[in-house]
Amino acid sequence: MNPLRCIVVDDEKIGREGIADYITEIDSLKLVGLCKDATEASNLLNSGLNSGSIDLIFLDIQMPKITGLEFIKTLENPPLIIICTAFPSYAIEGFDLNVLDYLVKPITNSRFLKAVNKALSQHKLLQRTTTKDIDFFFIKSDNQFVKIIKKDILYIEAMENYVTIQLKDKKYLSLLSLKKVMDELSGSSFYQTHRSFLVNISHITKLDGNQIFIGEKIIPISRNMRKEVYELIMSDKLIKR
To answer: Nearest Cα to 187, choosing from 132, 142, 238?
Structure first.
Protein backbone atom coordinates (compact mmCIF):
# COMPACT_ATOMS: atom_id res chain seq x y z
CA MET A 1 0.00 0.00 0.00
CA ASN A 2 1.22 3.48 -0.83
CA PRO A 3 2.05 5.78 2.11
CA LEU A 4 -0.83 7.86 3.44
CA ARG A 5 -0.47 11.47 2.30
CA CYS A 6 -0.73 13.68 5.38
CA ILE A 7 -1.05 17.34 6.29
CA VAL A 8 -0.63 18.93 9.69
CA VAL A 9 -2.84 21.87 10.68
CA ASP A 10 -1.76 23.74 13.81
CA ASP A 11 -1.35 27.46 14.51
CA GLU A 12 1.66 26.83 16.76
CA LYS A 13 4.94 26.17 14.96
CA ILE A 14 6.22 23.85 17.69
CA GLY A 15 3.03 21.79 17.40
CA ARG A 16 3.31 21.50 13.61
CA GLU A 17 6.95 20.56 13.71
CA GLY A 18 6.47 18.03 16.50
CA ILE A 19 3.84 16.11 14.55
CA ALA A 20 5.91 16.47 11.37
CA ASP A 21 8.88 14.85 13.11
CA TYR A 22 6.72 11.88 14.11
CA ILE A 23 5.37 11.53 10.57
CA THR A 24 8.79 11.51 8.91
CA GLU A 25 9.84 8.57 11.10
CA ILE A 26 7.04 6.35 9.79
CA ASP A 27 7.45 4.82 6.32
CA SER A 28 3.70 4.36 5.86
CA LEU A 29 3.11 8.13 6.10
CA LYS A 30 4.14 10.90 3.71
CA LEU A 31 4.05 14.54 4.82
CA VAL A 32 2.81 16.78 2.01
CA GLY A 33 1.91 19.98 3.84
CA LEU A 34 2.18 22.06 7.03
CA CYS A 35 -0.62 24.58 7.56
CA LYS A 36 -0.87 27.24 10.25
CA ASP A 37 -4.66 27.58 10.07
CA ALA A 38 -7.83 26.20 8.51
CA THR A 39 -7.66 28.61 5.56
CA GLU A 40 -4.25 27.30 4.48
CA ALA A 41 -5.49 23.74 4.90
CA SER A 42 -8.60 24.43 2.83
CA ASN A 43 -6.51 26.00 0.05
CA LEU A 44 -4.23 22.95 0.03
CA LEU A 45 -7.13 20.49 -0.08
CA ASN A 46 -8.78 22.40 -2.92
CA SER A 47 -5.66 23.05 -4.97
CA GLY A 48 -5.30 21.42 -8.37
CA LEU A 49 -2.12 19.68 -7.20
CA ASN A 50 -3.56 18.04 -4.11
CA SER A 51 -7.32 17.88 -4.69
CA GLY A 52 -8.58 14.49 -3.57
CA SER A 53 -5.09 13.24 -2.72
CA ILE A 54 -4.87 13.92 1.03
CA ASP A 55 -5.53 10.77 3.03
CA LEU A 56 -5.03 11.99 6.59
CA ILE A 57 -5.16 15.28 8.50
CA PHE A 58 -3.54 15.87 11.90
CA LEU A 59 -5.69 18.74 13.17
CA ASP A 60 -5.44 21.15 16.09
CA ILE A 61 -8.67 22.52 17.59
CA GLN A 62 -7.89 25.92 19.09
CA MET A 63 -6.86 28.06 16.13
CA PRO A 64 -7.64 31.68 15.21
CA LYS A 65 -10.65 32.57 12.99
CA ILE A 66 -11.80 28.99 12.40
CA THR A 67 -11.39 26.23 14.98
CA GLY A 68 -10.47 22.73 13.99
CA LEU A 69 -13.98 21.45 14.72
CA GLU A 70 -15.54 24.24 12.64
CA PHE A 71 -13.12 23.38 9.84
CA ILE A 72 -14.24 19.73 9.84
CA LYS A 73 -17.85 20.87 9.38
CA THR A 74 -16.87 22.72 6.18
CA LEU A 75 -15.47 19.59 4.52
CA GLU A 76 -17.86 17.85 2.14
CA ASN A 77 -15.82 14.64 1.80
CA PRO A 78 -13.24 14.80 4.59
CA PRO A 79 -10.22 12.51 4.64
CA LEU A 80 -9.33 10.65 7.81
CA ILE A 81 -8.82 13.10 10.68
CA ILE A 82 -6.81 12.74 13.88
CA ILE A 83 -7.29 15.54 16.40
CA CYS A 84 -4.11 16.75 18.16
CA THR A 85 -4.95 19.18 20.96
CA ALA A 86 -4.16 20.28 24.49
CA PHE A 87 -7.89 20.40 25.32
CA PRO A 88 -9.44 17.00 26.19
CA SER A 89 -12.86 18.59 26.79
CA TYR A 90 -13.62 18.60 23.06
CA ALA A 91 -13.29 14.83 22.67
CA ILE A 92 -17.02 14.05 22.57
CA GLU A 93 -17.74 16.72 19.98
CA GLY A 94 -14.78 15.51 17.94
CA PHE A 95 -16.00 11.94 17.85
CA ASP A 96 -19.50 13.19 16.97
CA LEU A 97 -17.84 14.57 13.83
CA ASN A 98 -16.41 11.11 13.07
CA VAL A 99 -12.77 11.93 13.74
CA LEU A 100 -10.64 8.80 13.75
CA ASP A 101 -8.74 9.49 16.97
CA TYR A 102 -8.22 12.19 19.59
CA LEU A 103 -4.68 12.82 20.84
CA VAL A 104 -4.08 15.04 23.85
CA LYS A 105 -0.81 17.01 23.90
CA PRO A 106 1.90 16.30 24.85
CA ILE A 107 1.63 13.31 22.53
CA THR A 108 3.91 10.36 23.17
CA ASN A 109 5.50 8.45 20.33
CA SER A 110 3.67 5.24 21.28
CA ARG A 111 0.26 6.96 21.41
CA PHE A 112 0.93 8.59 18.04
CA LEU A 113 1.88 5.24 16.52
CA LYS A 114 -1.32 3.67 17.85
CA ALA A 115 -3.37 6.38 16.12
CA VAL A 116 -1.43 5.90 12.88
CA ASN A 117 -2.03 2.15 12.90
CA LYS A 118 -5.73 2.84 13.33
CA ALA A 119 -5.59 5.20 10.33
CA LEU A 120 -3.82 2.62 8.19
CA SER A 121 -6.40 -0.04 9.03
CA GLN A 122 -9.29 2.31 8.34
CA HIS A 123 -7.78 3.46 5.04
CA LYS A 124 -7.35 -0.14 3.89
CA LEU A 125 -10.95 -0.90 4.85
CA LEU A 126 -12.23 2.14 2.95
CA GLN A 127 -10.30 1.07 -0.15
CA ARG A 128 -11.86 -2.37 -0.04
CA THR A 129 -15.32 -0.90 0.48
CA THR A 130 -14.83 1.47 -2.46
CA THR A 131 -13.73 -1.19 -4.91
CA LYS A 132 -15.54 -4.35 -3.85
CA ASP A 133 -18.69 -3.67 -5.91
CA ILE A 134 -16.77 -2.71 -9.06
CA ASP A 135 -15.82 -6.05 -10.54
CA PHE A 136 -14.47 -4.93 -13.91
CA PHE A 137 -12.43 -2.27 -15.70
CA PHE A 138 -11.58 -1.43 -19.31
CA ILE A 139 -8.21 -1.52 -21.05
CA LYS A 140 -7.15 -0.56 -24.55
CA SER A 141 -5.73 -3.49 -26.49
CA ASP A 142 -5.27 -3.78 -30.28
CA ASN A 143 -6.98 -0.42 -30.74
CA GLN A 144 -10.10 -1.66 -28.95
CA PHE A 145 -11.48 -1.09 -25.47
CA VAL A 146 -11.81 -4.46 -23.76
CA LYS A 147 -13.79 -5.16 -20.60
CA ILE A 148 -11.75 -7.13 -18.05
CA ILE A 149 -13.59 -9.01 -15.29
CA LYS A 150 -11.33 -8.86 -12.23
CA LYS A 151 -12.06 -12.36 -10.93
CA ASP A 152 -11.11 -13.86 -14.32
CA ILE A 153 -7.55 -12.50 -14.17
CA LEU A 154 -4.94 -15.13 -13.31
CA TYR A 155 -1.94 -12.82 -13.17
CA ILE A 156 -0.52 -9.65 -14.68
CA GLU A 157 3.04 -9.34 -15.94
CA ALA A 158 4.85 -6.04 -16.54
CA MET A 159 7.09 -5.72 -19.61
CA GLU A 160 8.74 -2.31 -19.94
CA ASN A 161 5.86 0.09 -20.74
CA TYR A 162 3.29 -2.67 -21.25
CA VAL A 163 1.44 -5.21 -19.16
CA THR A 164 0.13 -8.63 -20.13
CA ILE A 165 -3.18 -9.48 -18.49
CA GLN A 166 -3.57 -13.26 -18.46
CA LEU A 167 -7.08 -14.70 -18.23
CA LYS A 168 -8.00 -18.39 -18.17
CA ASP A 169 -8.45 -18.67 -21.91
CA LYS A 170 -6.79 -15.57 -23.38
CA LYS A 171 -4.42 -12.73 -22.69
CA TYR A 172 -4.31 -9.05 -23.53
CA LEU A 173 -1.37 -6.70 -24.06
CA SER A 174 -1.95 -3.08 -23.08
CA LEU A 175 0.10 0.09 -22.83
CA LEU A 176 -0.17 0.46 -19.05
CA SER A 177 2.14 0.52 -16.06
CA LEU A 178 1.85 -2.14 -13.38
CA LYS A 179 1.30 0.67 -10.87
CA LYS A 180 -1.74 1.87 -12.83
CA VAL A 181 -3.23 -1.62 -12.84
CA MET A 182 -2.49 -2.04 -9.12
CA ASP A 183 -4.40 1.16 -8.37
CA GLU A 184 -7.37 -0.19 -10.35
CA LEU A 185 -7.28 -3.46 -8.41
CA SER A 186 -6.72 -1.88 -5.00
CA GLY A 187 -8.72 -3.61 -2.28
CA SER A 188 -9.38 -6.78 -4.30
CA SER A 189 -7.69 -10.19 -4.16
CA PHE A 190 -4.49 -9.25 -5.99
CA TYR A 191 -1.00 -9.21 -4.57
CA GLN A 192 2.36 -8.13 -5.98
CA THR A 193 4.88 -10.94 -5.50
CA HIS A 194 7.61 -9.48 -7.69
CA ARG A 195 8.34 -6.11 -9.29
CA SER A 196 7.04 -7.55 -12.57
CA PHE A 197 4.12 -9.68 -11.36
CA LEU A 198 0.72 -9.15 -9.82
CA VAL A 199 -1.20 -12.34 -9.01
CA ASN A 200 -4.82 -13.12 -8.25
CA ILE A 201 -4.47 -14.99 -4.97
CA SER A 202 -7.69 -16.93 -5.56
CA HIS A 203 -6.06 -18.72 -8.53
CA ILE A 204 -2.84 -19.82 -6.81
CA THR A 205 -2.55 -23.62 -6.95
CA LYS A 206 0.80 -24.20 -5.24
CA LEU A 207 3.61 -22.42 -3.47
CA ASP A 208 7.13 -23.83 -3.46
CA GLY A 209 10.03 -21.88 -1.94
CA ASN A 210 10.39 -18.67 -3.92
CA GLN A 211 7.87 -19.65 -6.57
CA ILE A 212 4.10 -19.40 -6.96
CA PHE A 213 2.22 -21.72 -9.30
CA ILE A 214 -0.95 -20.75 -11.11
CA GLY A 215 -1.66 -23.93 -13.04
CA GLU A 216 1.52 -24.59 -15.03
CA LYS A 217 2.68 -20.95 -14.84
CA ILE A 218 5.57 -20.35 -12.46
CA ILE A 219 5.75 -16.86 -10.94
CA PRO A 220 8.72 -15.73 -8.84
CA ILE A 221 8.50 -14.27 -5.35
CA SER A 222 10.99 -11.51 -4.63
CA ARG A 223 13.23 -12.08 -1.64
CA ASN A 224 11.99 -8.94 0.12
CA MET A 225 8.35 -9.99 -0.43
CA ARG A 226 8.65 -13.65 0.60
CA LYS A 227 8.01 -13.09 4.31
CA GLU A 228 4.81 -11.15 3.68
CA VAL A 229 3.54 -13.72 1.18
CA TYR A 230 4.03 -16.53 3.67
CA GLU A 231 2.38 -14.49 6.43
CA LEU A 232 -0.66 -14.22 4.16
CA ILE A 233 -0.64 -17.99 3.75
CA MET A 234 -0.59 -18.57 7.49
CA SER A 235 -3.49 -16.16 7.94
CA ASP A 236 -5.53 -18.14 5.39
CA LYS A 237 -5.63 -15.25 2.92
CA LEU A 238 -3.88 -17.20 0.18
CA ILE A 239 -4.24 -20.95 0.59
CA LYS A 240 -6.49 -22.75 3.05
CA ARG A 241 -4.59 -25.03 5.36
So the answer is: 132
Residues in the chain: 241
- What percent of the chain is helix, strand and coil (3-state, nearest 5)? 35, 30, 35
What CATH code is carried by the domain that includes residue 13? 3.40.50.2300
Specify whether 173 is located in the same domain as 73.
Answer: no
Nearest to 189 by CA among 197, 200, 178, 198: 200
Q: What percent of the chain has pLDDT over 70?
A: 88
Cis peptide before 220 (omega within 30 of 0): no
- Which carries the bigger pLDDT value, residue 174 or residue 231? 174
**Phi/psi of residue 51, nearest 5 degrees:** -55, 125
Are 18 and 118 contained in the same domain? yes
Q: How far apart are CA 9 and CA 204, in angstroms?
A: 45
Higher pLDDT, 209 or 158: 158
Q: Which residue in 189, 106, 186 sits closest to 151, CA to CA?
A: 189
Is residue 190 very low, low, confident or very high in pLDDT (cuts 50, 70, 90)?
Answer: confident
Sheet holding 153-159, edge to edge: 171-174, 162-167, 153-159, 197-200, 190-194
Global pTM value: 0.55
Residue finishing a domain among 131, 158, 177? 131
The DSSP 8-state label assigned to residue 88 in this structure reads G
